[in-house]
Sequence to fold (288 residues):
Amino acid sequence: MAGFGVHDLDVLGMVPHPAVTLLLEFGAGTPVLDRAAGEQQRGCLVAGPGLGSGGAVRVHGQDVECVQVRLSPVIARAVLGVPPCELDGAVVPLDALWGREASRIREQLGEAPSWQARFALTDALITRRYAAGGAPVDPEVAWAWRRLTDGHGRPRVEELAADVGWSRKRLWSRFRSQLGLPPKRAATLLRFDHAAHRLVAGEGPARVAADTGYADQSHLHRDVMAFTGATPAALAGEPFLAVDDIAWPVHPAGAGSGANASFGPPAPTARSSGARSGRCPFDPIHRS
Fold:
């Protein structure tokens, strides 16, 4: 979970991430998401895993204040009230899912006296909705997701299916219907996310490709281009990624992937703290 207060947010490319993204804005201004098709969206939003693939989504705005939450797809259905597959890669207004509750949390965040209070409000909301949510995902699906996140996308789908005693077809169907993307796509996205953060950390593309499961450096290049529309060298300087290790540090008990964790079962309750990034054009106040 991270909080952002930005007077003048320059245009930033959204880099795809394996989590479901929940954006709760409450400031005088509002973040604006521009999609490649010309569509613009404002306000509190929800987006499924992989938002921004191909460099298709950019965000900008003035006087932006918001809390961003990354939800593990395993708990997203319980928290949002709909399975991630219904998002189908789209960005959905939060009030379409939560109704009046979306407006209420926006008002509460705006009235809160501090970032710590805002994080506590958001944490309580997510925890309450998760506890009151519908049936959890199949334990086999949750286990397969955890194997993929722990392995940064490297476990093979055939191995996962065999380990849970399902056919490959059944795992594909249940995984996609409950988490919003098929297991192979999830593995590709998790591998990319891990590689992207190692590039941002200053490692060379050849080393990153060799260590993260790519066939060679050109394979990494193709994946990065497909997900971001940029080269690995350009991705390494991407401001949207520079903040991740500050706002979402590694949490051993979480359900995150690579260098940054997302809310997973059970919802984490770690303390909040302030931070400042020297590489990023905006300053996160974050919670690990």
Remarks:
- Residues 251-261, 266-286 have pLDDT under 50 and may be disordered.
- The CA atoms of residues 254 and 264 lie 6 Å apart.
